[in-house]
């Protein structure tokens, strides 16, 4: 029992470290983000109407959105892997193996702890020695090629409702934080919490900071960001499709199951959480101001996707 308890404490420590690192990265990226400006073409000043004034900022409430199958159709890291395979970063057979890992995850509903640990030990062999700048540039290209048309319109509309109410909106995902930040920026969101890979002078070392941002690590990240940003978690909202995200959904005042898997659907019904399902389109056209505003991933897949080493073209 003592050995098992020790393993549990070690996993919790790594999850907490991952959460703290992700929150630090999210705050740093938000601070560094350029301020959006509206440029008028010559001669258009009198013809264009000024945009409506933004809502007063609601500084203590925010929304947190999972990415895979919540904000985006499919797994963001798989789309990223497809783009990397097209650029000969690894072979199509590697990509097929990655896809099989996702199939096993979706059929089984939970990833194997042994599988996650094994993949984690190999994960950063792929990025070690590569620059953050290189990965970000490739991520921008792949978002345009393979991700932009995968966004759930219904979920994006929910995020916009929070923004329109003056609330900040963050993505929370096991996807590498640099890729998560690209997705958030392209969607006009505040920022992202994601898995942090250590880098020195802009070059990846091949080590994670803590662990993958998954399961309990997401909850740690949300709490850590709330502490840094002065958020009242009781006034915050979280959205996810996965039973694995129950820890994150449980730390906020309002939880919403979006396109839920069987486990999360059952949990949502038991706890009285709102359920939104955009997969059939039945509710996608009927989005109104949800009660959440009035009130206030696959970790294994990520690890498996990053585990494939670059091979010679």
UniProtKB/TrEMBL annotation:
Domain of life: Bacteria
Membrane-spanning intervals of the chain: 287-308
Annotated signal sequence range: none
Region named Disordered: 36-57
InterPro entries for this protein: HAD-like_SerB (IPR050582), HAD-like_sf (IPR036412), HAD_hydro_SerB1 (IPR006385), HAD_sf (IPR023214)
Pfam family of the protein (one): HAD
Gene3D superfamilies (UniProt xref): HAD superfamily/HAD-like (3.40.50.1000), SG protein - dephosphorylation function (1.20.1440.100)
Entry GO MF terms: hydrolase activity; metal ion binding
Keywords: Hydrolase, Magnesium, Membrane, Metal-binding, Transmembrane, Transmembrane helix
Entry annotated with the keyword Ribonucleoprotein: no
SUPFAM superfamilies recorded: HAD-like
Entry's family note: Belongs to the HAD-like hydrolase superfamily. SerB family.
NCBIfam families on file: HAD-SF-IB, HAD-SF-IB-hyp1
Listed name of the protein: HAD superfamily hydrolase (TIGR01490 family)
Protein source organism: Saccharomonospora amisosensis
